[in-house]
Write a structure and sequence with these properties.
The protein is an alpha/beta fold. It has a single domain (1-458), classed as Alpha-Beta Complex (LDH C-terminal domain-like). It is built from 16 helices and 13 strands. It has helices at 17-26, 42-58, 89-102, 114-138, 151-161, 178-186, 199-202, 229-245, 256-267, 274-277, 302-321, 326-332, 337-347, 395-415, 418-427, 434-447, and strands spanning 5-9, 34-38, 64-68, 80-83, 143-146, 166-169, 205-212, 215-223, 226-227, 270-271, 352-358, 371-379, 382-385. Helix 3 runs antiparallel to helix 16 (434-447), helix 8 runs antiparallel to helix 9 (256-267) and helix 14 (395-415) packs antiparallel against helix 15.
Length: 458
Amino acid sequence: MVGPKITVIGAGSFFFGKSVIHKMASSKIMSGGTLALVDIDQIKLDTMLKLAKRVIKETKSNVKVIGSTDRREVMEDSDFVVLTFSKKNAYYRGVDTKIAAKHGIRMCSGDTIGPGGIFRALRTVPEAIQIAQDAHELSPYAWVINFTNPTAVVGIALRRYASFVKSFALCDGHHEPYNTLYWCKRAGIIPEDANYVPPEVYGKLDLAIAGVNHCTWLIRFQYKEKDMLPILVEKLRKDADKERKETTEDSKRRYNSTYALVLYEVFGAIPTTISHTKEYVPFFQGYGVAPILPEPIRLFDAESRAKKMEEDWRRTEAYASGALSVKQFMEEISDDHATDIIESMWGELRKPFFINTNNGNAVSNMPQDAFLELRCDVDMHGPRPQPVGVVPRGILALLHQVLDTHELTAEAAVTGDRSLLRRAMLTDPICNNISDVDACIEELLEAERDDLPDYWHS
């Protein structure tokens, strides 16, 4: 069986570019395939092409590598088109965060909810739709996989406004089988040094995680019909005690056990991506009279993020130039969520993965077209969510509010309708003042004029 053709839009990606090269070089299933790298930055493209060709040559992998700054030149007959592009990532997240904070809205990540998530969607969704149109013309049988934030909004937009292509969306937060391994270790079901979950454990496990991307919840966890949640909650309490004495300055990781414990006590379920979920609720914004416990969330540090991305790119350049060996590359870089899914789909490995897609009947008290992050069976016919059951009320209300925000955002991004943009922002769970929202929208539209579609200023 000949390997797939994978076209990567945004080859210089902080997350994905090196991982897909690693997978193509190490997987027998990918042998005979083609890796098409696309990036509008010629320097980044040249670096990634040099790296890919060097790795493929030295590992003696049977993979063809091509690339272009024009995706249409290399996209034809792709089996997978992966969207992993982001223009001025750290810069605009900094702009979004600072302007939002000026108008009373706090974001610790700023890429999926609140003004940051909404404006990132305005910058991203139109391009994603155009890529889907090109894929439909040049690769009509390809799976278009979104792997860029806000992944749920982009995924919804592809389903609603580019339904002529097959698509789903991804986030790396619940990478299987490591996700299940983590929770089993955490609950004491298997030893801390275990590197896999034994089949006999899987057979006695009922682990249900569901929600909207970055707002996902562990709603049920049983082993041998015993409830594991009390064990996890007790560990959260101990971790929260420790971090009150010593915590990080990083906004996404700061006081996470404490925030997770607070949300468990509110909703009766454990947030599984707390570094983002604490940004999805109004409780830690700083509203009200009484002190916020543990504290209002810290603002995203764009400068530190930019420095980290720059350091990572310098290491990528070192791999490409030969300053670091291919042996080091293969040892230090790992496959990721998206590459594992593509390999499993193409090779018919029948592995389950968490994927953002339509609910179907998995969550029985949410609509079938609710765009949720769920554990799915997946093959070349696409993802099929595994049964979850009922999402508890409270969380259910929050998920509906988040989805309404996302769907309004997707529609606004496609149409350029300012009234829909305003409605999306005012539906958002962390925006609570109409005048502040109106001022925030106007300031962000002006600050990001150069990288927003012209219809926002016509």
